[in-house]
Amino acid sequence: MCYSIIIFREYEFRRAARAKEHPLDKPNILITSPMGREYVAKLNTDPRVGRAQQLPREQWSLFRQVYESGPKAVATGPREMAPFFAEADIIICMGMPHGSVKWTPRLKWVQAWSAGVDHMQGSGIIEAGIPVTTLAGANAAPVAEHALMMMLMLAKNMKGFMENARSHTWRPTPEVDELGGRTVGIVGLGAIGRHVANLSRAFDMRVLAIRRSAASRQRDTQGVDELLPPADLPYLLKESDFILLSLPLSKETEKLIGEGELRSMKRTAHLINVARGEVVDEPALIQALKEGWIAGAGLDVFTTEPLEPESPLWDMPNVLMTSHRAGRTLRLEERQARMFEGNLDRFLAGQPLLYQVDPHNPY
Question: Does 324 qualify as catalytic in the annotation?
């Protein structure tokens, strides 16, 4: 019997044991992410649900502190936070503190209120065999639009024009460029990457993309001009005028873009990051922007969030920044709710959940 099958059966055994110890009647739902009171009230009108409650507002800052404290949460978390988790059968969250699986004896399902699950690392949730589902694809369209906006603003030097408007000055700005005929290199051809590819082709751009599952270089497939394996990152960096990072954070992708990668890019190239700040070596990026290794960057994510007031990124003329809001639109919550409710129906009917994380390859 292969190792992966043994591990899979171990996960199933753990999950079955928890279910037997705490049989499901009407599940209690705990919500640790900010959510409208109206939606919480709506969940409580569902006769199939025992109780849906949000973490009390006065606990938000404490929860964030516990979440950010890493392994220390094992000692500090249970004293204050565990009572809110003890009766939860389902948890909706953006992240779970280190070791928090020990707080949740009844837990049978976690709905991550995001597309990625790097925020689950250290919680023990996935390792315990508890199903974790994501909102993969829910924000793909708005994030892709945000990335294209940054590409256009950088190409057209909109920051310079905006400075002119603020100073009431009619003056020329440095030269502006066009997207047509340029090359975009997409690192991570998931839902967001595919949307960016479609939009970029509409602008008559050449599209290169790296996908983890690609074994070799292929042409004119999956909506891109060239599909590349991860080993072809140097080729993508050398060829691209815009490099888009839209891949999950993992041990393999942390600081994927460092000094060597930045120096290998064109001096006229721009880096767009809508993935995670930790995918880039931020000090190296700051040096690259200061010294002109690359032309500029569009950043929605940072190593530390909120970004420190003293960060030089704030005042760099060749940097566009947004506060990790690329996917937040007026229609996002509606899509998120539909995806969760669809899975809630499946969960209560004993059917397989959609968008479930592979425990063998979660990140």
Answer: yes
